[in-house]
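fyi for ur records
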Amino acid sequence: MDHVTAVHQQQGAIQLPCLPYTLEITGKAIGEIVAAQQVIPQGTAINIAFLGNENHVQRIHAAKTIRDCGFEPVPIISSRRLLSLEDRDQLLSGLIKEAAPKRFLLVGGDPAQPAGPFQDSLSLLNSKIVESFGIRHVAITGYPEGHPKIDQQELWRCLKWKLDYLRQAECSVEITTQFGFDAQAIARWIERLRSEGIDTPVRVGIPGPADAAKLLRFAKQFGVVASASIMRRYGLSLANLMRRSVADRYWEDLNALLLKQDLGQVYFHLYPFGGVAESVTWMNEQLRQRSS
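which gave:
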């Protein structure tokens, strides 16, 4: 198979450029990328969500569209949604043939029960997906504010296992965090990474401008739980459903903490809940102000 041959044609991990920010889209919303391509920086890496109500054809089409627009497709591979080893191979082969992704993001996925043989991203890695398809850059997920179904000790164990595995496989690695609202928790989490000698680049999940109702809906979907004090600070309540200042204030809080100390390579991953064009325009302006 061609993807097996590719393994022997690459020596060592490819060190890809550390883009200031990446963003995310679903297969069904790929038209937003086409419509907003003039404001998205060229070469931007765009993650493609792996939703249960989309199929491989839509995912592959989204990846090809992103590539055709001059951006870098980053397919998210949801371990628990894959039906079989053959299903995995069909998806990866189609993505590589049509869009030649350089990056993949491997996640466990949301289903309570796996649809196939992969219980989590560890079992997906153990299936030799990296070696079989010549993958040289992998992103994995981080949960600074915790996970609703996995305790903190297990999260750290899995994170370290994946980092060790991928380094031995000569892959370059990034950690992309779940979006959240607790800037202090994120800063503490990165501090712990660095204190334990983990210098892997981190992309902090940033929710773009969106009304509070939409943010609360996505927070529930992603399992993000905000404390009462965080909810009050950002106006995330049923009494403020149309409030849109959450992104600005959260960004200010996060940057104030990140700039206080040297935390190594820290970048951003934009969740464009309020729409791609508006979110990208907002992010471009925040980064311009940050560097001025």
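The chain has a mean pLDDT of 86. thats all i got for now
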